[in-house]
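Sorry to interrupt, but I need a hand with the structure work. Leave the record below and I will have a look:
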Amino acid sequence: MKTLRQYLDETACEEPLKDLIELIAYQSIPIRDAFIDNQSYAGTENTYGEEQAALDKWADDHIISVLGKSGFVKAIASEEQADIVRFPDAFGDYAVVMDPLDGSSLIQVNLAVGTIVGIYRGGDALQKGEDLAVAMYMLYGPMTVLTITVGGGVYTFALDSDGIFVLLKENVRIPEGTLFGSGGIRNEWLPGHHDFISLCEQKGGKLRYSGSFVADFHQILTYGGIYCYPAARGKPEGKLRLVFEANPIGFIAKQAGGAISDGTQDLLTVLPEKPDHRTPIYVGSKSLIDAAESCMKEHN
């Protein structure tokens, strides 16, 4: 079977970028191995005031340490860090954006969680999502799965018994499915979002929402549908972050024939104002993104 490296060698990626991709992908092994010893909460909060799971902090420290020592990376923007971490002496000129452990509240109940990563050329972590060189995520479920795009379609790999990522699916496309899931508190949703979820229900959509963005998106990528985390009363900016979450996942969605929006515009065209730039998110099948934007427009 084709390995991750064999696939990368068929792309137009430069050699240092291939090496960086592999380096990040294979951190899934030590991260997964760390699950048993990091089940609790760390007793600390991240920069957003959210309680950190022990594995949040461990994964963040681990990946930053590995990338810092590698010399490939000039800057890292992490969900667990208040500021961009910089490595001015790095020989490489890449910038990495990441959510080191998305869905960490699910660790104690053994549901799927993941690591979301984007890579930019040029050493600047605050670029538009459409300018990503690489978007990828590692999903820790029954299998450890890597989903990746380098701008030429979406490919999925699985970690085999020898600890090697081997090709599982190539040229993945998001079907026009009916799954839907929405974060937030229902009685705080805005009218446009209420109307859109009602439309999904009226069309026979099936509700799928676990609390892990990356796991829920992986279902959408496989079966089609839409993942939403909307604006809410008193929270027009939403909850999720443009840099660490929306851009890498949205880049994958678009490469797979889907789309991502804040309800009014393509999020991949938005220049981040700061590392913790928050945004409403609608991501998935193109027809459902169009329907969501139509519902929002009716109430603007």
Observations:
- Residues 4-169 form a domain with the Fructose-1,6-Bisphosphatase; Chain A, domain 1 fold (CATH 3.30.540.10).
- The chain has a mean pLDDT of 94.
